[in-house]
Design brief:
heterodimer; A: mainly alpha; MetI-like fold; two-stranded antiparallel ribbon; 14 helices; globular; B: 348 residues; 2 domains; six-stranded antiparallel sheet; two-stranded antiparallel sheet; 14% strand; elongated
């Protein structure tokens, strides 16, 4: 009896020992900084001098006296509401077509996925050339069909659409996950549906989409979180301009923290971002009861 | 079987074929659209200074041919003379007309409107762009810094995540499940929330503008890779562990002699993702590295752009060199790679 307890004790201690690196890292790099940034968000702090406690000033200023905050939020949400659904639709479409057992699946998959492994800075610079209003390939292609292309990244109206267009180049990232999901749907379901006389559309809406809804749901959540991390393309290509047309939330936070050294204010921005992401994720989770179908529920 | 196929079955077959063909057409259009930027990068990296700024864009870089006449370089033209197209060098311009000379026979001279002629061009790849780009900025230094981060970051991630995943996969202890949920929850945490205090911490211990902030945290494990490895470890049979314990093997020995040797695919997946992430990352190096001698390739490329924005050919040559390693890794490890995306994607 005593021996078994001590054995179990020993196992526990070893368990804690092995997960130790993560626990220590969690305290130093996650829990500690989270608390610290919450405290910092209540101060004015520029690193050089000691932080000054100002209560909720930063938050009050953020919501009532900072049009750039609202603007950055609007830019980010606009991008999210257009780019995420577009990527979802195209990513799903490509995966669906590949799943028709077309020849050369590996080949297509490679081409579509390739842009997703490339460094963000390199692809941003490449798109900078492609979007060049005067000599760029995109306006040349448009000129072939008789359209005079806009100024893209140099134009306040077209800079954000340009970045959205560019995001579609990464459509392979979602595609690969959808494809794996589609391949996991048992063919017997389709065979049974065909015997019952279901056409392709019915198979898609009654079998494929319901079974894929958890995967779509997952991509939706990560897409929303990802939009609030969006940084490199805007930083490299537009720096947030022209006239703040591409001032994404994360870019604004970066500028507040590292350009203006408003560490307290930037911390407040970070916490507001955290709450927004949390609210959105919870909304998607809540709504998921309505449209996400989990196979396990049926079995249970 | 085929001969006995009934009519509806045959028409179903035909419908499926049609479907595949339509699918292939759409896939091809999409693939062309995806490839255009890539081809443009390759093509631009091989162009001369003029070709890269040419409009309409040149897909295969061409350059006007010049010949030497009286010690001067003259453009070669295809130009109609007396109803016959001749290949002549433009010796001198005289307003809208030009003096054209047969390079084979310099005595033969003609006067003709320059606009009637077409410059003779030939395909020319400027392979020297890669060397020029490398010389234009200290890319060797950037590459070295990047490699240091990649190598140590990968070692750190593999070591720490293996230990932690082993702990979560094989040990029962009070609070263990709760801690695992906490680990998973950190995936949802936007990194900005911890960014500023972490930055201040690293500044305080004088690690700002060194590579340490990009390397040391990898030795404390991360949720994605721990999750991926833990799932893999849990799928390994426990019988071997138990047999090893009876043979007097310690927990360390089980990890190194039994778990790790069976987990090469999962460890390789983690290694590949870590390498790729470290190679491509821009955000953290931007925050922590200030002086150019500590820059990574991503920062160096961005800095290069600031200086050489007008020289698209060198910019694309430099970009292409940075793109090649991750693309090669992807090609060679495609299977592991895609499995990794899928495991962390679907089950995450």
């Amino acid at each position: 009896m005593f021996k078994s307890i001590s054995l179990r004790r020993r196992e526990s201690l070893w368990g804690y020992f092995f997960i130790g690196p993560w626990v220590i890292g969690f305290i130093i790099f996650t829990a500690g900084p989270m608390l610290a940034s919450l405290v910092l968000s209540l101060t004015h702090y520029d690193i050089a001098s000691a932080p000054i406690f100002v209560g909720l000033d930063n938050y009050v200023k953020l919501f009532t006296g900072d049009p750039k905050f609202w603007h950055a939020l609007r830019v980010t949400m606009t991008y999210a509401f257009i780019a995420i659904p577009l990527n979802l639709i195209f990513g799903f479409l490509v995966a669906y077509l590949l799943n028709l057992r077309v020849p050369g699946v590996a080949f297509w998959r490679t081409i579509y996925y390739l842009p997703s492994v490339m460094p963000g800075v390199a692809t941003a610079l490449l798109w900078g050339l492609l979007f060049n209003p005067r000599i760029g390939v995109i306006n040349w292609l448009l000129s072939l069909v008789g359209i005079k292309g806009p100024g893209w990244l140099a134009s306040p109206q077209w800079a954000l659409p340009a970045l959205i267009l560019m995001s579609l180049w990464g459509v392979g990232g979602g595609m690969i996950i959808y494809l794996a999901g589609l391949q996991g749907i048992p063919t017997s379901l389709y065979e049974a549906a065909q015997i019952d006389g279901a056409n392709r559309w019915q198979q898609l809406t009654r079998i494929t989409l319901p079974l894929m809804s958890p995967v779509i749901f997952y991509n939706l959540v990560t897409g929303i979180i990802g939009t609030f991390q969006y940084f490199t393309d805007a930083y490299v290509l537009t720096g947030g301009g022209p006239v703040d047309a591409t001032l994404f939330y994360n870019l604004y936070l970066y500028k507040q923290a590292f350009t203006y050294r408003n560490m307290g204010y930037a911390s407040a921005l970070a916490w507001v971002l955290f709450v927004i992401v949390l609210v959105f994720t919870l909304l998607v989770f809540k709504s998921s009861d309505l449209w996400v179908y989990y196979e396990g529920e049926m079995r249970g | 079987m085929r001969t006995s196929a009934t009519k509806p079955q045959r028409s179903k077959k035909r419908a499926e074929r049609l479907e595949k063909i339509i699918g292939l057409v759409i896939l091809t259009i999409g693939a062309v659209a995806i490839s255009i930027p890539l081809l443009w990068m390759i093509s631009s990296s091989l162009k001369g200074k003029n070709a890269v700024n040419a409009f309409p864009p040149q897909w295969i870089p061409r350059e006007p041919v010049k010949v030497e006449l009286d010690g001067r370089a003259c453009y070669l033209y295809d130009i109609p003379i007396d109803g016959e197209v001749r290949r002549l060098a433009l010796y001198r311009k005289n307003g809208p007309t030009g003096i054209f000379v047969d390079p084979e026979n310099p005595e033969e001279q003609y006067e003709a409107p320059v606009l009637d002629g077409k410059r003779v061009t030939r395909i020319k790849f400027h392979w020297e762009n890669f060397g020029l780009a490398l010389k234009a900025a200290p890319f060797a230094r950037y590459a070295l810094n990047t490699l240091i981060i990649v190598v140590f970051g990968t070692i750190g991630t593999l070591l720490s995540c293996t230990l932690v995943a082993y702990g979560f996969a094989r040990f029962r202890a009070p609070g263990m499940n709760w801690l695992f949920l906490l680990l998973l929850a950190t995936v949802m945490l936007p990194p900005q929330v911890t960014l500023i205090p972490t930055f201040i911490l690293f500044t305080r211990i004088h690690w700002y503008d060194t590579l340490y902030p990009l390397i040391i945290p990898t030795f404390f494990a991360n949720a994605w890779d721990v999750f991926l490895l833990r799932q893999f470890f849990m799928s390994l049979p426990r019988e071997l562990d138990e047999a090893a314990i009876i043979d007097g093997c310690s927990y360390w020995c089980i990890l190194w002699k039994i778990i790790v040797p069976q987990s090469f695919p999962a460890l390789a997946t983690v290694a590949i993702f870590t390498m790729l992430y470290a190679w491509n990352d821009f955000y953290e190096p931007l925050i922590y590295l200030q002086s150019p001698e500590h820059w990574t390739l991503a920062l160096g490329l961005q800095g290069f752009n600031a200086l050489y924005a007008k020289q698209g050919h060198l910019l694309m040559a430099a970009s292409l060199m940075m793109v090649v390693p991750p693309v090669l890794i992807f090609f060679f490890a495609q299977r592991l790679f895609i499995q990794g995306v899928v495991v962390s994607g679907i089950k995450g």
